[in-house]
Amino acid sequence: MNAVVLRRGGLSVRVGRRTLVLLAVLVPVLAGLALLGLCHGATWASPAKVVEALGGARGGANVVIREWRLPRVLAGLVFGAALGVAGAIFQNVTRNPMGSPDIIGLDAGAYTGALAVITLLAGTSAQLTVGSVVGGVLAAAAVYLLSLGGGLSGLRLVVIGIAVNAILTALNSWIVLRAELEVAIAAVGWSAGSLNGVGWGDLGIPFAVIAVLFVLLALLSRALHQAALGTAVAVTTGVRVERLRLQLVLIGVGCTATVTAVAGPIAFIALAAPQIGRRLARAPGIPLLPAALTGALLLQGADLLAQVLLAPVALPVGVVSTAIGGCYLIWLLAREVRRT
Description:
Membrane topology: Multi-pass membrane protein
Largest sheet: 2 strands, antiparallel
GO molecular function, one term: transmembrane transporter activity
Helix content: over 70%
Family: Belongs to the binding-protein-dependent transport system permease family. FecCD subfamily.
Keywords: Cell membrane, Membrane, Transmembrane, Transmembrane helix, Transport
Number of helices: 14
Radius of gyration: 20 Å
Strand order of the largest sheet: 1-2
CATH superfamily: ABC transporter involved in vitamin B12 uptake, BtuC
Distance between the termini: 34 Å
Number of strands: 2
Shape: globular
CATH topology: ABC transporter involved in vitamin B12 uptake, BtuC
Number of domains: 1
Transmembrane segments: 71-91, 103-122, 128-148, 155-177, 207-228, 248-273, 308-334
């Protein structure tokens, strides 16, 4: 048997054995990256000092670890997992390795919604979250409606998504150019995708939203597994495929838009994490758990690299993820060309 079914109450999740092995390997790696993130800063803190700070010890250095470094590390892990899951959802739905939120325009749509909130309203955390989600949903709706002739799958949706992404990127540039100088400077800096300055006050609502979305995704795990076996098999087992796809799209949009609301559009994590996770797990489809773990690993690793490259100046993590993702995209395109 190549899979294990985990049950708790009325909830059951089917997990591949190799995925469990991958989980046992990546969780300690993520813990090590988290510890490194808590140690690294303007001044180095020893692991013993970090443990002391997390235990509630008082003092300036302990406050820095708890109030400044810990929120950033948790944001890197949780947001990376959310982006990995979002990418896996859309690559499963489109059955295309290019079908990720940052490629088909959903990140750009979420950014448009956030820009509208920043320029027209006060731009509070709750408003940014709502604006980003609304913008992402509208972008997804536009891509879906324009793709109806070919169905919600395949190259057609990806190509249309790229076109929608280009239009929204131009719209975002126009909004920034028309905004007041202070707002434009803030928007341009935020558009690079950054975890710099993330604090506890920025994370309460986004973490709650992502937790709810992950629970909803777990409830759909059985139907998702049936759909992965093929549309015909899914229909015969009672799965309403189109309804399932719509639910998955909404969850994926919610994940990527929530991250965008706090950190800005962080490119390529959602594109690369599902494919890397699939290869590590040696799974036939795009499994969600490896994608989430890989996304957390990529984002946290990229953020640490962003802090080190030009220290003491911390780069936006989006700069590093874009550089890494660009290399990955070139490899992926070359591989797809060879296959055709």
